[in-house]
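Q&A log
Question type: sequence-to-structure
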Amino acid sequence: MSNFDPEGKAKLAADALDLIDRTLFLCPSPIYGYGIERLLERLDEMPHSIVLCIEADNDLFDLSQKHIGSSSFAANPKLYLSNCCNEVQLIKLLRRKWGERFFRRVQLVRFTGGWQLYPQLYQNIFKLLQRELVIDWSNALTLAKLGRCFMRNVIRNLAVLGDDNSVSSFTFGNDPVLLLGAGPSLDKALSILADHFGKTLCDKEKRPFRIICADTCLPALKDRGIRPDLAVILESQHWNLKDFTGLSGWKTAQALDLSALPRSASVLCGPRLWFFTPWTELKIFSRLEAAGLLPEKLPPLGSVGLSAAAIALRLTQGNIITAGLDFSFTLDEFHARGTPDRREKLRLHNRFKGLLNERAVFTEAVSRAVSKNNERVYSNPVLRNYRDLFEREFSTTPRLFDLCDSGLPLGLKSLTSKAACEMLSAGNCGMAALPDVSLTENSVEVVDFIRSEMDRLLSMQKMLTGKMPIDIDELASLIDECDYLWAHFPEYAASERRPGRDDFETGSPCAISFLKRIRAEIDPFIKLWNLTLNHRCRRN
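Response status: OK
Response body:
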């Protein structure tokens, strides 16, 4: 802190800031609170900006509480003082107080020199907040683009949802699990295993370990005669179907997200286990859970490889060895041999078009990286984000290991080929029985649920078409209950929610526009619910 007029200099610093609403101002080590009062005065006309003061030193935190707590601006709702420096707890604190996507940017403000006691810690907190905002707003864009698709898939999948076939209803016991992604290192991993286990690798009854794979791996495994114990299917869009080319009728168990493309569930011939990753908060999820129809809930990780890792940790108490989760690529390899992209590359190969992956490598967003074996690879922001998320979620799990030494580091202990094969050999032979899909035991609950959802939409439809008088309170309640109709609207995928009751009563332009757009969503969803109901009844 400056010895010459520290308070005056802090005020000048506050006056020099460029202020934009929806900014989280991070003020490390505020000590006496110099400059904060001036900043709060300038934020009077910015209702969605907050000043977050973080103090890592316990003695300085007590000093800050004493001086800031007794100041004239201590009760300002835009000021929050905390000594929370744990990343997970800090993110939970922000979301509990202000919710997701309340802020659009983070600005670092240093009014005192106290931050120099822990410069790296405060810088890490600043980067953490920036990263979380990017993730939140990326999720909002995904919701705006795919939210309707996710919900349509959930409704269609209710037509084939069984009674007791959630991933929580099954276990591999203590058997070790080989977790496979479709990265280039999958080829090396399978060669190592084939050399060690021989024909046993292709025999599920004799194989001493279990194989859980991402759906993109299925063609590569089938080419090698390897039948996995479980394939994880997450993708909600139609291009996921190319992963199942040539696999119709192949008997393989599947773990499907409730929002996965319905057609994906009908290609393979095998038991279906369901899980659920909530892409946003919707009232219908609570109703599904209350009706006993919501499968095992997994965190929304965005990548089928990460979801497969989360499922593997639930299905076995034994060790898990990963392979093919590279999150990187080379000039000539993006996926393993036999995967759809590699096959497409070979199919298009001629004297004018080579096998090099130049379009993936030579783009602006791609950057060079160093793999676990110090070789040069390439990655892009999406893959790097998934790698970072994998490390945050799973690197502290002692049961997770790496088999091959290519790809980006995952924060896991890498095993030698010999150690990995010895670990996989420690399981018991024999295939545990997967639960049979049952459509009869919970049919009444599913049918009743579908009909109750249709009744909600029909009531709303009648109000908005003038077939029955509008009750503002009932309409507002129905809109909240059927929030899947509008959660994907771009302006409502952010922190702002629907127009309020006063807007509906006065017929404000935003309320009229909102109701017209909801009206356009109702009819397609009624038809979809009716289609699901008919399909369910036919299957019974």
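Response note: Confidence is low (pLDDT under 50) at residues 436-440.
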